[in-house]
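pasting input
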Amino acid sequence: MDAIDEQLVRLTQEGLPLVPRPWDVLGWRLGITPAEVRARLQRMLEQGIIRRLGAVPNHYRIGIRANGMCVWDVPDSRVAAIGRWVGQLECVSHCYERPRHLPEWPYNLFAMVHGRSREAVRAKAARITAALGADVRTHDILFSTRLFKKTGLRLPQPPRQPVPSAGAFRRSREA
Amino acid sequence: MDTPVLDEIDRRIINGLQGGFPLSERPYADAAAALGLDEDALLMRLQRLVGQGVLSRFGPLYNVERMGGSLVLAAMRVPAPRLEQVAAQVNAHPEVAHNYARDHEFNLWFVISALDTAAVRDLIRTIEQETGLRVYSFPKRREFFIGLRLEA
């Protein structure tokens, strides 16, 4: 990542310009050609710096209201095998091993389960817990009740370097 | 907030365009053609879907860790009457990418993303000082799958 890559991230982290030739707008702001903008984005896709390029839905606004963070306390010696199994289930999106904070937080396996209702999420979690059997010492589901913020990545502005304001960027997107 | 009414074309866009946006000269025209639309119609609908909040945004989903940065899940146990105020204090930091209330004793969950681990650690300390509450951090030890593609 060079300085231009970082600037490109800053210019696109709130979204691409919704105009017929978005690379022209970005290239103009960065002082590079549209072809170079495309080449840099292509390289970042290949390197995995960009996971994917397209629509980022807000699941609350498309009716997927229940978002259950399911957590289990499983033996450390078994967590990798269990995590791989839970992670490949169709109803599970993200699945991670994370540290416990004893005694308040005994859980070390986290999986996000999304659904149209809490009941749907509870039923899926119950099936997973049943399948894990004696490996589960304790478990819980945390439902989200409010979304306070969802912005995705925001790089901090670098010091003493002129960067177009968000307002200027929005104006350019509307242009 | 009510869920906006989405028609069949909106759904086609949301379900069909969560990845693979082309890096061609006229990417919206090419993406539109693949969806059986024209460029103007796709641009107008994307503007509306972003405006309605159905899409958080349209563009790259960055992986801050692949940039050498760091991403940490954190949680707090906030006394219920202070939840709004503490959420606002947390949100005021641009490094906080997501922030949810959850129905649990650990009732505020957020993601901090920054370009280096020291910045994440400093921000956790800052939030603890600003709120007088402990921030529990849950850095991932292992990642088993990330495959979320939401169906509208």
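fyi The CA atoms of residues 11 and 136 of chain B lie 38 Å apart.
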